[in-house]
Design goal:
Layout (H helix, E strand, L loop, with lengths): L1 E6 L22 H13 L3 E6 L4 H8 L3 E4 L12 H9 L8 H8 L1 H10 L7 E4 L14 E5 L13 E2 L2 H15 L3 E5 L3 E10 L22 E3 L3 E3 L14 H4 L8 E2 L6 H18 L3 E10 L5 E8 L10 H8 L4 H17 L1
Parallel strand pairs: 1-2, 1-3
Antiparallel strand pairs: 4-7, 5-6, 5-7, 8-9, 8-10, 8-12, 10-11, 12-13
The structure holds adenosine-5'-triphosphate (ATP) and magnesium ion (MG).
């Protein structure tokens, strides 16, 4: 098959005077694209990279791919991860991964949390600040955690995200407004282990964006392959990071990564995390691949809390969580990438 690998490369991203130093931290490296192309070629396909910017429309019409392997994070706007998929739908070109609605939704953490809460799935209690003078919900008890509503790669997340009183909280909210020009998400701070669970596959139909009503827990994950959970060993990082998986750890200290995979968890904990991961995949309407981030509350018997879902998880071999999890499961990088493609092909051939 002719496969177009669609991504936004850091080196192709627009630049301007006064841009933020972390502006493009969530974009991809050439190395990742080379790995993806290598894996797809290994799978018998003819893979070509196309930059997911304004040039894409013309390049797609010239290349005429059978399918796109989409990992575009986008550049601008609060639907930036959904823009390329919207274009592909307009052109009627099949593509891997989640579609427009799930991508736009998952980028918006508060909106995602509202849906999780509606379905009774555990996510830290929260409040969104659009203005600095909004009264704090008295149900939210310090310490709290403050982060941007719509960023990834730990952008805006650092030790000062943990706030202990209202003055600290409002100072951090103001920082988010100033730096990221978007609402600040204030959540209960979950002190505890940092765990992430990745998966490939698709739910067996009929699914809809809800949990099954018949209480059949085993059915919820049918069709999904869930990888072993990965724990980030926060104890191995400098204490000044505050035990937080911050932007600095994800970018500057990325080479000094301390994953434990499979995470040391009891079978009942693994079962619960897997159930929650499948439930999130289902209610958000993800397709083909995703990764769900959790914290285990040390104050409540390691009870898992869902922090967010990543429908475009990083795919750098040996570095990204999902790739490490797949490797721990005995999967080669080539197998992982071709499985994601095959899941999409199967959907489009239905
Ligand atoms: N409510 C919370 N309580 C404690 N720690 C939190 C909380 N929310 C976020 N964190 C910390 O901040 C990190 C980044 O948060 P989150 O996963 O929401 O951001 P992200 O930038 O979207 O991450 P990703 O790189 O996975 O896209 C988490 O991995 C965790 O260490
Ligand atoms: Mg995360």
């Amino acid at each position: 098959m002719r496969v177009a690998v669609l991504a936004n490369l850091k080196k192709n991203a627009p630049t301007w005077d006064g841009m933020l130093s972390d502006q493009w931290d969530d974009l991809d490296s050439e190395k990742t694209i080379q790995s993806l192309i290598g894996a797809l070629n290994y799978g018998g396909h003819e893979a070509t990279f196309l930059e997911g910017d304004m040039s894409l429309y013309d390049h797609l019409r010239a290349l005429k791919p059978d399918i796109c392997f989409n990992i575009c994070e986008g550049h601008f706007g609060d639907a930036r991860e959904a823009q390329v998929p919207a274009l592909l739908e307009m052109l009627r070109i099949p593509y891997t991964g989640s579609r427009v609605m799930a991508l736009a939704l998952a980028l918006d953490k508060p909106m995602t949390k509202r849906i999780l809460t509606y379905h009774g799935l555990p996510t830290p209690p929260f409040q969104v600040f659009e203005r600095l003078d909004e009264p704090l919900d008295p149900a939210l008890v310090f310490p709290l955690f403050v982060k941007p509503s719509r960023e990834g790669t730990g952008m805006g997340v650092m030790a000062d995200s943990i706030v202990h009183d209202e003055a600290e909280m409002r100072a951090k909210v103001q920082k988010i407004f100033d730096r990221y020009r978007q609402p600040a998400l204030v959540e209960r701070f979950i002190d505890g282990r940092e765990v992430t669970v990745g998966l490939v596959g698709n739910l067996v139909l009929p699914v809809a964006r809800r949990l099954p009503e018949d209480g059949n827990a085993s059915r919820i994950g049918d069709g999904l392959h869930i990888f072993p959970a990965l724990e980030v060993d926060m104890a191995r990082y400098p204490a000044e990071e505050g035990g937080i998986y911050s932007n600095r750890l994800k970018v500057e200290l990325a080479e000094d990564f301390h994953p434990i995979c499979p995470a040391p968890l009891r079978p009942d904990q693994v079962e619960e995390l897997n159930w929650l991961t499948a439930a999130v995949f289902r209610v958000i309407g993800c397709l083909d691949v995703a990764r769900v981030d959790f914290r285990l509350d040390v104050l409540d018997n390691d009870r898992p809390y869902i922090l967010e879902v990543n429908p475009l998880p990083g795919l750098s071999p040996g570095i990204s969580d999902l790739c490490i999890e797949a490797a721990a499961d005995g999967w080669s990088y080539e197998r992982l990438i071709n499985r994601i493609l095959d899941e999409a092909l199967r959907r489009f051939c239905l």
